Amino acid sequence: MSKTRFPGHQHFQNFPEIDSADLLLRPGDPPPYMTYNENGTAPVLLVADHASPFFPASLNQLGLADWVLEEHVAWDIGVDELIRFLADELDAQAVLAGFSRLIVDPNRRPDDPGAIPPISDGIAIPGNLDLDEKQRAQRIQSFFKPYHDAITERLIQFHDRGITPAMIAVHTCTPEFDRVVRPWHVGVMWDKDPRIPFHVMEYFNDIEEVCIGDNEPYSGRHPHDFTIDFHAEAAGLPHIGFEVRQDLVCDREGARRWAGILAGALRGILKDESLYSPLPEQAKCGLSSKPENEGSAAGP
Fold first, then answer.
1. By C-alpha distance, which of 149, 166, 157 is closest to 90?
2. How many domains are there within the chain?
3. Peptide bond into 300 cis (omega under 30)
4. Which of 246, 236, 243 is CA-nearest to residue 212?
5. What separation in angstroms does the CA of 278 have from each of 193, 239, 272?
6. Which residues neighbour 34 within 8 Å (Cβ) at sequence distance 6 or greater?
């Protein structure tokens, strides 16, 4: 495993070795996941499903032009810096996906037709056309499974230490969609567990300069989401998802600033020791003033 410390960050990001038996990945390719601040002391795990626009050489960018890799369709722009700065602020561990969501979306169920989209945000994906079941299975084996196994491994480590951790998923979204400007600086995604989301939204409601979205522009009730539902909600772990507008975090200073803002909203509830226990079934709720918003194929 190799590691590096990015400019402006406090901890190392680790890059696991490529499995020599893998059929799609070769030495020199980006790994299917990275970890950051592996020795973080907070009882919190941060995850970024769409933290990379990269493709292994074997997939030839799925036949896409270079400019597509710089668009939201390929990844959540700025989320890599944002999650590292948030991990620094909270002294939390983080797991980042190391591949473009166009290969296979780690935030979709593997059997979801949208997990390997032939078209995304109106852009045809040539390398995703006419895949057979064996090719789809290999994508899941090479990319999807190692990323989610890395998340599971860290949650098990918490469990073995007698800790019920909080899980925080971090995404970024475009400042407009379908010619409609999105006014929200930060969206809070949640479903049945209000413990962290309610605290965060109350915190932001007192800050006039921040426009907060309650399940806007994407909803935690989206039926096709996977990561939080599978790892956190099913186990009753306290959790929250964030969507931060990309124009706010597209450079390092913006990412640092908004990581500090998110950390300020989280610190109060994360200090509450009563948070770190599974949510009883009878305590689950689904209250929200906003209807479900399924959004575009490229998010959350």
1. 166
2. 1
3. yes
4. 243
5. 10, 11, 14
6. 13, 14, 15, 16, 51, 95, 96, 98
For the segment 121-145, what is each residue's pLDDT rounded down to a tens digit?
899 999 999 999 999 999 999 999 9
Q: At what angle do helices 252-270 and 195-205 cross, to 10 degrees?
A: 120
Q: Which residue has the tokens 């999105």?
A: 182
- Whether the pLDDT of residue 147 is over 80: the answer is yes
Give the residue carrying structure tokens 């990323």.
147
For residue 253, being part of any structural domain is answered with yes
94: number of Cβ within 10 Å: 28
Q: Are the beta carbons of 144 and 109 closer than 8 angstroms? A: no
**The residue to which tokens 């810096």 are assigned:** 81
Q: Which domain holds residue 23?
A: 2-283
User: Is 29 domain-assigned?
Assistant: yes
Q: How far apart (Å, rounded) are the C-alpha atoms in residues 99 and 105?
A: 9
